[in-house]
Amino acid sequence: KKGRVPPCGAISADELAKIKAAVTAKLAGSSVERAMKKSDGSFHAMVKKSDGTFAHVALDAKFAVTAVETR
């Protein structure tokens, strides 16, 4: 249906490790608070940055960071 958010799924420990590595390479000193896999194979992570602010990080299916949106 139009306007609905695509469902997100659980991720494996290996996927989480790759997400954490990609996020910390992009945002030094940050920590991944949670991460989800989208139906298209890409990932989304909620990140706490080193300055205490939060960001949403989008990653493609190969774990490359494609966007960072500060909250």
What is the spatial order of strands in the main beta sheet? 1-2-3-4-5
Query: Radius of gyration, rounded?
Result: 12 Å
Strand content: 35-45%
Number of helices: 1
The mean pLDDT is 91
The end-to-end span amounts to 28 Å
Uncertain residue segments: none
Give the overall form: globular
User: How would you classify the helix and strand content by structural class?
Assistant: alpha+beta
Output the helix-strand order. Answer: EHEEEE
How can the largest sheet be summarized? Answer: 5 strands, antiparallel
Number of strands: 5
Helix content: 10-25%
In short:
The protein has 71 residues and is α+β, with helices and mostly antiparallel strands.
Keywords for this structure?
single chain; 71 residues; alpha+beta; five-stranded antiparallel beta sheet; globular
Descriptive overview:
The chain is an alpha+beta fold. The chain contains 1 helix and 5 strands; from the N terminus they run βαββββ. A 5-stranded antiparallel beta sheet has the order 1-2-3-4-5, with helices on one face.
Could you outline the blueprint of secondary structure elements for this entry?
Elements: E1 8-9, H1 13-26, E2 31-38, E3 43-48, E4 54-59, E5 65-70
Antiparallel strand pairs: 1-2, 2-3, 3-4, 4-5
